Amino acid sequence: MRVGGVARLGAVPRPEAPPPRSFARRLARSRGFRLGRPHGFAIAPDGSRVVFVRSPAGDDPVASLWVLDLLSGTERLVADARALGGEAGPVPADERARRDRAREVSAGIVAFATDAACRVATFSLEGRLFAADLVEGGAREVPTGGGEAAVDPRPDPQGRKVAYVTGGALRVVDLESGEDRLLAADDDPDVSYGLAEFVAAEEMDRFRGFWWSPGAEALLAARVDERPVLRRFLQDPSAPEAEPRAIRYPAAGTANADVSLLVLDLVGGRVEVGWDRAAFPYLARASWSTGHPPTLLVQSRDQRTVRLLAADPGTGETAVLREDRDEAWVELVPGSPAWLDDGRPVTTVDDADTRRLAFDGVPVTPPGLQVRRIVAAGPDAVVAASEDPLEAHLWRVSPGGGIMRLTEGPGVHDGEAAGDVVVVVSAVEGEDHVRTRVLAGGREVAEIRSNAERPEIVVNRTRLLLGRRELRAALMLPAGFDPGSGERLPVLLDPYGGPHFQKVVRGPLANLESQWFADQGFAVLVADGRGTPGRGTAFERAVRGDLATPVLEDQVEALEAAAGRFPFLDRSRVAIRGWSFGGFLAALAVLRRPDVFHAAIAGAPVVDQRLYDTHYTERYLGDPNEDPLTYERSSLLTDAPGLARPLLLIHGLVDDNVVPAHSLRLSAALLAAGRPHEFLPLPGATHSPSDPAVAEGLLLAQLDFLRRALGLPRPAPGA
Fold it and tell me: What is the pTM of this model?
């Protein structure tokens, strides 16, 4: 517990830690205990049903389509993925890319779309298109044209036709007659219609590329020309018979895809939507909802200006509805913009060091309540927001000024809403699983069953405020450890430490891996430093121009403050591990502060910021052609000759997000400087290794490295 901001530890009896391999195997096969959880919710506007996908067990990746009938409270299986032939088989390339961007861990029916009344759902299964009847039940395959796999099928608002992408072409099929027609295509394979380009899906939270008109007579569709974008090739050396895969990847300072918008009617008409694409090349959002014209949110290349535009579907002309500017960058908040029923746009504004909800540009939530996502808008708005950075709750905000919190319990709450029905997904501290409840009129009317496995590991966690910035941190200790015993523990820092992600939150699934390492004999410290969300806009923007110095300073400050408070932390044996940005931070730590850190594990690290994508990197570091020094300050390559501590590099060989060239170039620089290190390549693995055997072995390999690097005793063979 914390008393006056100071944590006090006592010898609390704990159950024995499970054998190392057992938890690693369960964590891997359950995809972090996410399989079996319901997700992907759609709510019927009349409040009669909730549609979702879920797999049958916590170690089964094949998800199916389900409906919860709110009147009876019963769940119905609408489409069984296995019965329809979906056994986690080959996934089309465009669909595989969409899943990677969305960090989807399941297979089978992983996503679906519904008509306006939520009576019809469509989905693709191994490239085949299916339509499901959400009222009567059952699903049937819909024959398609084009000869290639169907991707992202979406029914029109009336549920009579389905638009889908195949081979980069946008097509529409009539569900009754079976007539299938081509709406847009290009002979060049690097030009596609209806898909989100890489940076839109990876960095802007826009995963789709076409939108039906409310009357179902036309579609608003993105045309993506990737010919200006650098081509990269990924080749898995473990499969030399496979041809290299070419990808278009816009590295910092290079050309992006040329993205435009078209209004396509169903009889061949085409109108291009016009805006200043030279000044605003990023299409961040688009929509076409009832009572509103086509709207789009566009962003400048330096990300300091965004414009909300309304388009005339007949002429393609646009008018500016709103413009926002920020000297650092304008944050693209998920769900923004939306619309109130009275016609006012629902967005956010950064004001008083707070990201506040705004109706027509006027802030309507108080300072200190950090809005993280706009969940829904209609007569009022529902948002996910935080008073405490360790928690997130759902709030309903009315145009009349009323604001009401919808969720209770310390933890992270999220969900979906339509009318007075709210699906609440709650990860509450003190519980051992994530719950999904349905509220109607503010009253709980149902709970959707989860099939996820329970972690069965006790997180022995003490929450801390560390250093002069009061960094949010958590300290995990081994099961049964007595702080008064005189024993000193080696320390493992386990951060992410960068933008858009926190590791220090309240909830049952937070810090499970950290606790597993703690149970192997470490004191594990996790700290969220500058750049991480939830602490206000100034805290987020502290990394502008330098992604290295502030984040490393905060990890050192957290360690020093914790060691000053807890004498059992052994400062002579300190390691750090991380993945992606956390991998960059781990390698940075041993390269620049070997006096503090004695070993590091860097998984998929961003070694050279020039190799990472435009939208993410330029937001923080600007254009490398204009200010190369900011990129040098945040590069690991110039520090490579100074490596004096054990370093393990890990990288998936077909990672198309942080490409393997990052770790390979660092390894080459270390080798050239005569600096020994270890490299663990992962054949066939992307940025998030999904093979359970690989994921399990990865945890055990990291544990073995830490024991060797810090001179810790290793278990006897076979133990």
Answer: 0.93
